[in-house]
UniProtKB/TrEMBL annotation:
NCBIfam families: hemK_fam, RF_mod_PrmC
Gene that encodes it: prmC
Domain of life: Bacteria
GO molecular function, one term: protein methyltransferase activity
SUPFAM superfamilies linked: S-adenosyl-L-methionine-dependent methyltransferases
Keyword Ubl conjugation: no
Span of domain Release factor glutamine methyltransferase N-terminal: 5-75
Descriptive protein name: Peptide chain release factor N(5)-glutamine methyltransferase
Keywords: Methyltransferase, S-adenosyl-L-methionine, Transferase
Methyltransferase domain span: 112-181
Methyltransferase keyword on record: yes
Single GO BP term: methylation
């Protein structure tokens, strides 16, 4: 069986099971088996697959139909122009989260010392993308994660992108590891914490294979963000900026909390590519 024949057969299978973009999914899975990119498939359609390759491909197609996220099957996901290792201990990086990275890069001062801390780093894709694209050499980076499996993956990704000496990874819950620390510089806190409700998780088939602990946060999805904001009140820094990914329904409640803790704080909400409120920025002087 050739590459072209394998693709034709399995695109048809995925299409029959109503898998979105069956041609793309079939190509990504076969490229993973061959350890090549999709361009290779197009250029070498006549190349015959070995028995081992055919069996591996069949296995991945079966899991995709099950359905498993493609990123978990290939072990990779692209984010902000970089390739990241992922597994079922980490949330799969999503395009809308790139807006969080873009927002951070716009806010980071050009030439003054800055501390950047990400809570709930998961695969590390956010802080690694920021560190790779931030031109300010006077920036210190720290990533905090409660899951040992996730922080192991984040460290691997940092090493892969040459940032294992640049980013300090710390095991812990939210800001607990730095709760007694004083910062003389500007502090930027990045957070893409779980923000879904149990009902949202249950009614979203596409995320059923991802870790619930990385998605659900209490009845209204805000338990962890409430805890984070309370912890920030105990942090001392020159100034603090929080940049958070949220559910579109949450800005009013988060704004209310921000004004409760910091009456003079400034809040801003940014929309994602679909016009939904997605990123919330709180500036505290």
């Amino acid at each position: 069986m050739t590459i072209d024949q394998a693709l034709q057969i399995n695109i048809k299978k995925l299409n029959q099971k109503r898998i979105d973009r069956p041609d793309l999914e079939a190509e990504l899975l076969l490229a993973s088996v061959l350890k090549q990119d999709r361009v290779f498939l197009l250029a070498h359609g006549e190349k015959k697959l070995t028995i081992c390759q055919r069996l591996k491909y069949r296995h991945l197609i079966a899991k995709k139909i099950n359905p498993w996220p493609t990123a978990y099957l290939t072990g990779h996901q692209e984010f902000f122009g970089l390739d990241f290792n992922v597994n079922n201990r980490t949330l799969i990086p999503r395009p809308e989260t790139e807006l969080l990275v873009e927002s951070a890069l716009k806010i980071i001062p050009n030439n003054s010392p800055t501390e950047i801390i990400e809570v709930g780093t998961g695969s590390g894709c956010i802080i690694i993308s920021v560190a790779r694209n931030n031109p300010n050499p006077q920036t210190n980076y720290q990533a905090i994660e409660i899951s040992r499996g996730a922080i192991k993956m984040a460290r691997q990704n940092a090493q892969r992108h040459g940032l294992d000496k640049t980013i300090k990874f710390t095991l812990g819950s939210l800001l607990t590891p730095i709760s007694s620390k004083n910062f003389s510089n500007s502090l930027i806190i990045l957070a893409n914490l779980p923000y879904l409700t149990p009902d949202q998780f249950t009614t979203s088939p596409s995320i059923q294979r991802e870790p619930q602990s990385a998605l659900i946060s209490g009845v209204d999805g805000l338990d962890l963000y409430r805890e984070l904001l309370q912890q920030v009140t105990r942090i001392n820094a020159k100034d603090i900026t929080l940049i958070m990914e949220i559910d579109p329904a949450q800005p009013p409640i988060i704004t209310q909390l921000a004004k409760k803790y910091w009456p003079n704080s400034k809040t801003e909400v940014l929309k994602d590519f679909c016009g939904q409120d997605r990123i919330m920025i709180i500036k505290i002087k």
